[in-house]
DNA sequence: AGCTAATCTTGAGTACTTCAAATTAAATAC
DNA sequence: GTATTTAATTTGAAGTACTCAAGATTAGCT
């Protein structure tokens, strides 16, 4: 299931190393993982690696576009395998679970701000915050915007 | 121009202290400021305060809803005076400048994801990334998604 | 197999933020 | 106006996420 990981590295001009394949492999299994999670997944298989190396690898992969970095309020950065669609994320307020969301309402209405202040808009990120099904039962909270 | 700051604190059940008024006053002047910026603005007027106190105050103000915390990739958190509309932000890739953007395209299309994975959606955050007018002249970069 | 540049390892260090205990100040009651 | 009570601030320490840099190692090429 992790076929082509080495090919993707080569095509991006990166050398194929055990660490990079392991990080990519982890992201195949865990769609949204932070650096620490990835480290704990691969550490048993790569005894000599470290959390710094994982950050290093993730930076490299992000730089060449194999991986996408997602930062959300008050949590460590998450990484996901880059898919070239413009999907977004929904995050659970309670447990922090992250799910992908296809771009809202048909086309991509969110890609054009009504007033860009003269900015050249390059991309738009949409993050939904809410309560995941598992947490909905436990509490019904304030619905402030 | 900073009339009503003390009233807002009282209405939120917070005691009116010099530090809180100063932080709110700073946010009136500087619409998007991080904790460090706020500290440097108020430090000359409140010699005994500290960056930790500023964080403390900002947390209190955020908790009661007087201030909104905005986190963006790779930068310290920014704070702004809460306005109860659902406006969003556009951030410059180069200089980090932040501007407000009214909610895209008329109503609030972004508040309903096409597939919520069963989440109870509470709010949506839209962040636009681009190049501000000042930086546009210097470089025309890659326009990746 | 040998060379070279890229990559990893290791340790230290930085930025931002949080925590906790003692001090201080604001709001209320007197 | 003063005392009381409760909340807020100060101060120091610590934690988390991440970056930097120097030397050791390894992938990919010839």
Describe what you observe in this structure.
2 copies of one chain form a homodimer. Chain A has 145 residues and is an alpha+beta fold. Chain A folds into 2 domains: 5-79, Winged helix-like DNA-binding domain superfamily/Winged helix DNA-binding domain (Arc Repressor Mutant, subunit A, Orthogonal Bundle), CATH 1.10.10.10; 85-136, Ferric-uptake regulator, C-terminal dimerisarion domain (Dna Ligase, domain 1). Chain A contains 5 helices and 6 strands. In chain A, a hairpin with a 5-residue loop joins strand 4 and strand 5. In chain A, helix 3 (35-42) packs across helix 4. Chain B binds a DNA duplex (30 and 30 nucleotides) through residues 14-20, 34-36, 48-53, 55-57, 59-60, 76-77.
